[in-house]
Amino acid sequence: MRSILNRSLTILLILFGSISLANARTGATPQAASIIPAPSTWTWVQDSPVIFCGQYGSISSCTIQAAQIAPTQPGSVWVIQVMTPNNVTITSVTGGGGTWVKCPNCHVFNSSGFSVDAWYNLTGNAGTVTGITINLSGTSGAFFNINFFEALPPPGTTAVYDDSGSVARAACTTCTGVNLNITGTDIIFYNPGGASQATWNSWSSPYVTDTNGGAFSLNATSGTAPTVLFDAVSNPSLLAIAFKSTAGVFTPPTPQYSIVNFKQYTQTCNPTCNLSFPATGSGHLLYLEAADLNNDHIVSASGGGSWVIPTGANTCQISYVQAGNNAFSCGYVLSSVAGATNISVTLNGNSSTGFGIWEIATTSGTFAFDTQGSHVNAASFAPSGQALTLNGANDVIFQMGFVPGGASAVSYYPQTYIDHNATYILFNEASESLLLDSGPVAHVPVWLNPQNNATPVTGVAFMTAGGPTPPNPPTGLTAIVH
Hints:
Elements lengths: L1 H4 L3 H18 L16 E7 L11 E3 L13 E8 L5 E5 L5 E3 L5 E2 L5 E7 L11 E4 L8 E8 L6 E10 L3 E5 L9 E5 L17 E2 L5 E6 L6 E8 L2 E9 L11 E13 L2 E5 L8 E8 L5 E5 L15 E3 L5 E8 L8 E6 L3 E12 L3 E12 L17 E8 L6 E2 L13 E3 L3 E9 L8 E2 L6 E11 L17
Antiparallel strand pairs: 1-9, 2-8, 3-7, 3-9, 4-8, 5-7, 6-7, 10-16, 11-15, 12-14, 12-16, 13-14, 17-24, 18-23, 19-22, 19-24, 20-23, 21-22, 25-31, 26-29, 26-31, 27-30, 28-29
């Protein structure tokens, strides 16, 4: 049998086809026959700011505690990045299992800004949420900021360090990162840099600006330095670290969806608000989320197309009156009209309300509603987002979390960044997140809730009709026959 397994791919395919055909004719169940598909894509898991360490003042060591990172995943890449005003480095990282390794090119000190450094771990324990300790070569100075990055390599592969680099920039608003020499189909992480990004898409394509203001390039084949737009003249200290997988170079799925525009507002509606928006395109998905503290909900909307406002149980309309009349509601347009520049929203009462509006484009098919849901989590440091059972093979999914006092991060859903507000559409109360090209199984996010209180959450998913996205055909096949 071993000689059969070592023959050419052509013979293996013929063998597998013969087994399948014989089973189809006889109705028999094969003893064992499997196809191992080619690796497909990297998965972003989290960019979580370890917020409490920065509040301790000048210290030389800090340990990650509850509600600072989401539970880690099996086989993932971990990166710890630090930023301090003093020129210090990380001397060691302990905890979480596995082996911590110093990033060889990640330390840089900007005399006009900050010092940054990073270590990584490729073999940490799944389910880690606390107990990782970062030790510095000296005291941090006035603050000690930490970010925890995590990503999953393509299924069936393991992650490998590829390259890294760092650079200090001065007096720039649009600032340039660092060139990397990557040798695979990689994931590349960038730290936020020590200043506030100006917009939801501050990092140049193909980089995604994540909810923490950092960036990543998913399935990258080029290490060319991106640019990042800050909201003021800045002196950023930027580091980048790239990982490949044991798959080497592979062809990932082509993204189907893209964000055309996003805007966030906080306005008092009496009970109507008029929200300006960049001129809409034709045939796009428009999604509107609202949050307030007065148990008010969207009852109607106009402008840009025909709006649908979900109501009733287990929809995006949810209240949690025990915690102060916290309320979410939403609306959507499945096919926008071109040229709309104003969206009028009416609530069922007068309320100061936070809004997020997205315009999403697809490369194929027309948008259709898929599914939605909502629930209230009991008090928890790590409440789950809304689980969704998708009907589509490739969806756009919106997740919302109402965390009184503020959520520090969310896993799996990296967009959209709001200048100075991270994920908040209603500051320190209601957060939003978005994942494009998700499916056929939807990730259930974890919201980090330092207050350890009850958390209402919603999830809404959209698919496309008439333009299905088939899976990539496998390029590496093995027949296993007993």
